[in-house]
Amino acid sequence: MFKITGKKFIFICLSFLWMIVIFCFSARDADESTEDSYKVGLAVGRVLVPGFEKQSRESRLEFAAKVDHPVRKCAHATEFAILGMLYLGVCYNKKKKMKKLVIKPLLWSVLYAATDEFHQLFVPGRSGQISDILLDGAGALSGILLVLALIMLIKKIKLGKEENAGL
Predict the structure, then answer these.
(1) Element of type H or E holding 118
(2) How many angstroms separate the Cα of 25 from the Cα of each of 37, 44, 109?
(3) How many CA atoms does the CB half-sphere of 121 hold within 13 Å?
(4) Could you tell me the sign of the dihedral formed by the alpha carbons of 140, 141, 145, 146, in that order?
(5) Could you state, in order of their start, the residue ranges of all structural domains in the chain?
(6) What mean pLDDT, rounded, does the chain reach?
(7) Predicted confidence band at 1 (pLDDT cuts at 50, 70, 90)?
(8) How many Å apart are CA 36 and CA 28, to the nearest integer?
(9) Fewest CB atoms within 10 Å of the CB: 22, 60, 91, 107?
């Protein structure tokens, strides 16, 4: 049975809010989405390319266009890494084995990724891609595994402190 504690309720609410954020990003038409990606590409250029601001506007926009594809793919993975983490918060139970903790949040993330790509079929200039569902799933899995690794590390540190206290 699924017992809803205060923490689980918070994670459920945060998950729904994050799903709305993803939906809103996906609802942006191709021109708006490209503009967003170019803004990120220009920010990347300012951080990583020495003298970027001194380059011509055309050169900076050319750079943004070159990094557009990786920026979009990183955005996909990051959106769903966060969603996977939030779903893990909904499903987390100290008594469950780590392997079982991955399954539900990952399946929910991939299911939402599929609905998100379907939604994009109806947005002007956008398309639904199976490859993006796979990328979203990989992002979700990465987020879930990162949180589980942190949980294991924290448990290990606590266990070490308890063992040292017993000496």
Answers:
(1) helix 98-120
(2) 11, 20, 16
(3) 9
(4) negative
(5) 6-165
(6) 93
(7) low
(8) 10
(9) 107
Report d(CA 124, CA 116) in Å as an integer.
14
> Does the pLDDT value for residue 116 go beyond 90?
yes
What pLDDT is stored for residue 118 in this prediction?
A: 97
Reduced to 3 states (helix: H, G, I; strand: E, B; else coil), residue 29 is coil
Neighbours of 74 (CB within 10 A): 16
User: Do residues 94 and 148 touch, judged by C-beta distance below 8 A?
Assistant: no
Give me the pLDDT at residue 159, please: 84
Q: Which pair of tokens denotes residue 83?
A: 């969603």
pLDDT tens digits, one per residue of 72-112: 999 999 999 999 999 999 999 888 888 889 999 999 999 99
Using only the alpha carbons of the chain, give its radius of gyration.
Answer: 20
Which of 135, 148, 132 lies closest to 87 in space, CA to CA?
148
Q: What mean pLDDT is predicted for residues 8-25?
A: 97
What is the per-residue pLDDT for 2? 59
